[in-house]
Description:
The protein is an alpha+beta fold. The protein has three domains: 2-149, PAS domain (Beta-Lactamase, 2-Layer Sandwich); 209-296, Helix Hairpins; 303-451, Histidine kinase-like ATPase, C-terminal domain (Heat Shock Protein 90, 2-Layer Sandwich). The chain contains eleven helices and twelve strands. The chain has helices at 2-14, 17-45, 53-59, 98-104, 145-194, 209-258, 264-296, 307-324, 343-359, 407-413, 419-429, and strands at 70-75, 80-83, 109-115, 118-129, 132-143, 303-306, 328-334, 338-341, 366-374, 378-385, 433-438, 444-451. A five-stranded antiparallel sheet has the order 2-1-5-4-3, sandwiched between helices. A five-stranded mixed sheet has the order 7-9-10-12-11, with helices on one face. Strand 11 (433-438) and strand 12 form a beta hairpin. The chain is elongated. The model is unreliable at 410-416 and 456-460 (pLDDT under 50).
Amino acid sequence: MSYILLIAAVLGLLNTYPLLVSEDLVFRSKAATMENSVSVMVSALGDLEGLTEENVTAAMTLAESTDLSRILVTDAAGRVLYDTRESDGAVGDYVLYTEVVQALSGNDAFTCSYRGGAFRSRAASPVLYQNRIIGAVYAYEYDVEQAALLRGFQSNIRNLSIMVGVLVLAVSFVLSRALTKKIGELLSAIRQVRAGAYSHRAAIRGHDEIALIGEEFNSLTDRLQKTEDVRRRFVSDASHELKTPLAAIRLLTDSILQTENIDPATTREFVADIGQEAERLSRISEDLLRLTRLDSGVLPPPLEVDVGPVLERVLRMMELVAEARQVALHCEEMEPCSVMATRDELHQVIYNLVDNAVKYSHDGGQVWVSLRREEDRWAVLTVADNGVGIPEEDLPRIFRRFYRVDKARSRAAGGTGLGLSIVQDTVKNRGGSVEAANRPGGGAVFTVRWPLAAEKGGRP
């Protein structure tokens, strides 16, 4: 669809820009031609001291050889002295054409338009005698021949665009079917591997990007199968490694207990061996715990992050959502605060709280966000709204996973019941806390506290 829309935009440009350029070229050509014709007629009248119907008619005999549709000559007052129109001539009448008025003011005038399948061109120039305006010459041309050429050009471009559009749709259909088939095979392979069939491989032929993805998927599946084999072997080896020192400790303790009159030196030797096995067991346990943390995903190392820019970015992102719901976002205050965390964690916490406030506000509601320092120890983020609020009996359970106050509205708003749990776990992992309460004037307010990062002077 993206490529189709792009090609449609190109075809639309192809059907407009060349036509506009062609019209502009015709306008320029008309301007040069008509201004030249009018200047010739003005020159023929320029030797006359005054303009009358008789001397103008005599001087305008050359007008009969032009292709102009109409020619008018007026005196200085705008009264028509000469008109080439055979019927409904305007001789003796006064004309108020814009071009004639401009010419009698001492300016050359030209206008051209394309409508109704014809070019309509108008030009006028003043007639001067000893630097005095004694009249004006007005010319009008109604041209359908060049308009017909332009319409033919437009029709050819339109037909070519239709052919290209049909070809694009056909090629897009063929390519989409081919790509859909390959993607379907890849999805089927992914589902089978997800179900545990690590020996399954995606059979995608070709040399395109989908085939390369299939090869990478097969390579990844090979690694998954090897990882599973390693995991099983690791569990077996770990069990054996744990069992060995335990068995040795059990054997040594039994030997001490069952041997009568054992000498102190032997006892000391056995106890030393027990200590060595216990130390070995402790090292194995620590290694297993470390591997478990790595497998489960340890927290990334915290960095000193300025909360203000992250908050500004979230508010910019939420502006469109708030405007769509007619909710006003207010940033009451923003003091400089830096905390030890990651930018992604801060973004997740702020975004979830502001998004909830906007979602659960009435249309036309308001959301207030503030960031301040508290006792030089905490960075305090407050997100408040004047929405429906939270029932008092639900406040203790609001951070439970999958818990919803209003299930129907939560599903309608797209909530999963996990956002506040994510906020609480993320903040707690960095030594902070989050609280929920109801505003006295209606709505809810969430307060998040992070420990401030140590400043350069050593103060927290």
